[in-house]
TrEMBL record:
Keywords: NADP, Oxidoreductase. The active site is at 61 (proton donor). The lineage of its organism: Bacteria, Bacillati, Bacillota, Bacilli, Lactobacillales. It comes from the Bacteria. The keyword NADP applies. Belongs to the aldo/keto reductase family. This is Aldo-keto reductase. InterPro entries: AKR, Aldo/ket_reductase_CS, NAD(P)_OxRdtase_dom_sf, NADP_OxRdtase_dom. Residues 28-274 form the NADP-dependent oxidoreductase domain.
Length: 310
């Protein structure tokens, strides 16, 4: 199966997509948004032991420390090496800008207990900042501190603006993507540029999981609604990072390789698109249309530090 001219391997949890810079990235991974440090550590360790190799976090999530602990435990219990994993984190909105981004990566690496990142993303296109942030990511990429760089939550307009100044094309655009919000324009533009779309919130919450069409398809295959949605992502060529704090659910989410969706089933899910984002750019306090000033804070879950500054 191809994605925008990108080559893909055979189907298993170890399957990868070859990004536009030649780096291989797992096609299915674990997300940890809205997870505290203790839960993140357990989830990440369990996921690695279950065969996951892609782990996605962000400074804004307030759980990089927990993710790092989970990575360490997972590697110890499986006998794997750091190079066997693909770890993503993101530039915090409050750190965006050229010099501040160059400095910010050190805090993330320290919290994660790592010496390099596999993928570093611009978390949101902060007004007046994201081009300079991208320039810093390019420098980190050239210096070998990150293996690949990409963007997150960039619509077509802002992606086009970034590309006017970029020397490196983003390998990934991570977007809210699920059956009810399929980002048709972003996906089409990503294919044109050789950028892979990665889905955050791929399951779409209760509205998608309880959708009658998806439930009917799930019953037909003897699978859960979540498994059908993740399989749909897979067949669409979208990298997915479903979040779960439950070990059995983490395992279940990866059990999608003993069935496939027919063309008719794929089309039926495609037709569920409402093109309605639950969370978008204009919702954030730091968004300012004239490009002057922004504010933001790290998410604080029960065990997250109140002051998460580098």
């Amino acid at each position: 199966m191809g994605y925008g001219g990108v080559r893909m391997t055979t189907e298993s949890l170890a399957s990868t997509v070859t990004l536009n810079n030649g780096v291989k990235m797992p096609r299915l991974g674990l997300g940890v948004w809205k997870t505290d440090n203790a839960s993140a550590a357990k989830s990440v360790s369990a996921a690695i032991q279950a065969g996951y190799r892609l782990i996605d976090t962000a400074k804004q999530y307030g759980n990089e420390t927990g993710v790092g602990a989970g990575i360490l435990e997972g590697l110890e219990k499986t006998g794997l090496n750091r190079k066997d994993l693909f770890v993503t984190t993101k530039v915090f909105n409050g750190d965006q800008g050229y010099e501040s981004t160059l400095a910010a990566i050190n805090g993330s690496l320290e919290r994660l207990g790592l010496t390099y990142l596999d993928l570093y993303l611009v978390h949101w296109p902060v007004d007046g900042k994201f081009v300079d942030t991208w320039k810093a990511l390019e420098e980190l990429y050239y210096a070998g501190k990150v293996r690949a760089i990409g963007i997150s939550n960039f619509d077509v307009e802002r992606t086009q603006e970034l590309l006017e100044y970029a020397n490196v094309t983003p390998v990934i655009n991570q977007m809210e993507f699920n059956p009810l919000n399929q980002e048709a324009d972003v996906l089409a533009f990503a294919k044109l540029t050789g950028t892979v779309l990665e889905a955050w919130s791929p399951l779409g919450g209760g509205a998608a999981l309880n959708n009658e069409t998806i439930q009917t398809i799930a019953q037909r295959h003897g699978k859960s609604a979540a498994q059908v949605i993740i399989r749909w992502d897979w067949q669409r060529g979208v990298v997915a990072i479903p979040k779960s704090s439950h070990i059995e659910r983490i395992k279940e989410n990866a059990d999608i390789f003993d069935f496939s969706l027919s063309a008719e089933e794929m089309q039926a899910i495609n037709e569920l698109d409402e093109a309605k984002r639950d969370l978008w750019y204009s919702d954030f306090a730091w968004h300012n249309a004239d490009g002057h000033g922004f504010k933001d804070s790290v998410d604080t879950w029960p065990d997250s530090p109140e002051n998460y500054a580098d």
